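quick one, 182 residues, struct below
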Amino acid sequence: MKKVEPLMDAQALTLALSRITHQILEQNRDPAKLVIVGMQTRGVFLAQRIAANINELTGATLVAGILDPTLYRDDYRSPFRQPKVKITNIPFDIAGRECVLVDDVLYTGRTVRAALDALTDFGRPHTIQLAVLVDRGHRQLPIRADYVGKKLTTLTNQEVALHVKEIDGEDSLWLMELDGES
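---
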């Protein structure tokens, strides 16, 4: 893969997360009923930032949960792929709460579908809302995000890659292209 085009720098990413935070608060006026859960890997860091934004704006004390939906995917049993399972840590009760599931990029919808199955193993939230930094289209399942930082039209030979300072040393969003493809 090679970087083709920068889509967001650190400032644009911060602004998009701020906008998503405000939209979440417009729809969920009582932070005491709200829980934030980030999907492994980079969705976790976005969820932590959204929770921190909500805490700053409202005085709440939200902690972002962590969800790895790997074992709930419909493709993890593929003979060619060994799943790499990561940590799931949801240190609060989600039953009856307004749950915001956070991911970096919404593509086919299959990861979100797996996350919905995984999340319900922890209880039955009143609602599950989806926040994504990027919606790049190409859905294979009827799933849509409630909160979107940026909508893109991409080709199937392209990927959208989020870099976060916690892992990559910088905050940026890139359009990537498979090597050898145009």
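The chain has four helices and eight strands.
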